Amino acid sequence: MQLSAADLAYLSECAIAAAKQAGQLIESYANKTVSVQHKHGGGSPASQLVTEVDMLSEAVILKLLQPACERYGLALLTEERTDDKERLQKDYFWCIDPLDGTLPFIESIPGYAVSIALVSRSGIPIIGVVNDPLTHTLYSAVKDQGVLRNGKPWAVSSVSSTEERSLTLICDRGLLQQAYYSRLYQALESMAQKRGLNGLQTLEKGGAVMNACWALENPPACYFKYPKPEQGGGSVWDFAATAAIFNELNLIVSDFYGQPLDLNRADSTFLNHRGVIFATDHALATDIQGLLVLCNKG
């Protein structure tokens, strides 16, 4: 099935409406004590947490997206439900993270968001919508139609004066805890100096979705997860919507080997096998690929 421009407009509107309503629900629970449970997930503690708000947000989203599923025969992949593998059979699937960054949400700190993407069976992100309920910022992208930020056309700001800008490293908790982190920081600091930038700054502890968005808001910037043999490294729903946004902004989203993210991996939803890079320019992405040796040294 080939989706027309009118189809994409309708589906984008559905995703935006769902992300807004879910964001409103999440905001209503902000700074409140919520019920927290543990689930089977990736290797990090953050990936093993689920709250009542995750489930309520998912219910809101699915209610609004279900008519589109029936109209277009779309599959569903959502973090809080078992993968039924229909994504491997149907032409497109909704890829949903109803509350990415559950840990920062529990801690009442920035870094959580709603993420909704439409992905083709071949793994191409077609639509990406991210809603940050804390700042009321909504990003949306449709393939070959550009990016909107709060409903207005958007492009990432260029670096006009390198002396006034730092290189921004977006760090999740897993990276901060690695033995090689200090060596990585020093390597990136040297990279910033060679570019004539004013040092290295870090933004820490967000979920994967907001980490990618923070890179967009703080160029030149990078967010990445090294490849590893263990299950984990983020799942399709952590990266699909932001991949659509980065693609439409002509920025870099790839694995550590320069290939597009495997957003419809048949054997797993995890992307640990090849890693993930989000970067605001090609040269920065290439330099980050070269830092893989630091991870391999332990």
Please render the helix and strand layout as text.
Elements: H1 5-29, E1 36-38, E2 49-51, H2 52-72, E3 75-78, E4 92-100, H3 102-107, E5 113-120, E6 125-132, E7 137-142, E8 147-149, E9 152-153, E10 167-171, H4 173-176, H5 181-194, E11 200-204, H6 208-217, E12 221-225, H7 236-248, E13 252-254, E14 276-279, H8 282-290, H9 292-296
What features would you describe in this structure?
- It is a single chain.
- The chain is α+β, with helices and mostly antiparallel strands.
- The protein has helices at 5-29, 52-72, 102-107, 173-176, 181-194, 208-217, 236-248, 282-290, 292-296, and strands spanning 36-38, 49-51, 75-78, 92-100, 113-120, 125-132, 137-142, 147-149, 152-153, 167-171, 200-204, 221-225, 252-254, 276-279.
- Strand 6 and strand 7 form a beta hairpin.
- The chain is globular and about 55 Å long.
